[in-house]
Design a protein that fits this description.
The chain contains two helices and no strands. By secondary structure, the protein is mostly helical.
Length: 99
């Protein structure tokens, strides 16, 4: 035997409406907080991921180029020292060969 109670039906409808309203308020609060956070971050001088990656790649290329130039300079200095040593051992009028 089932009885219909209008009071419980009305209470269930009110609770369902309140739950929907609270869920909507939660979504609105989250969206508002997200917008405020974006505004706060936008006011700061942060770089985007793309800009960071571009500068990182440029720095790596510059580092590689500097290492290559250092190796080239070392090779030139070694060749210069070898030439200087060969020139010093060559006989000249001021430096006769030793017997």
């Amino acid at each position: 035997m089932q009885t219909e109670n209008k009071l419980f039906e009305d209470f269930a409808k009110i609770m369902n409406g309140a739950a929907g309203t609270l869920a909507g308020m939660g979504r609105e609060a989250e969206a508002g907080a997200r917008e405020r956070f974006k505004g706060w971050l936008g006011g700061m001088d942060f770089v985007s991921r793309e800009e960071f990656e571009a500068v990182k790649a440029m720095a790596a290329a510059a580092r590689d180029e500097a290492e290559a130039l250092k190796a080239r300079l070392d090779a030139l200095e070694a060749a210069g020292k070898a030439d200087a040593a060969a020139t010093a051992s060559m006989p000249t009028p001021d430096n006769p060969p030793s017997a």
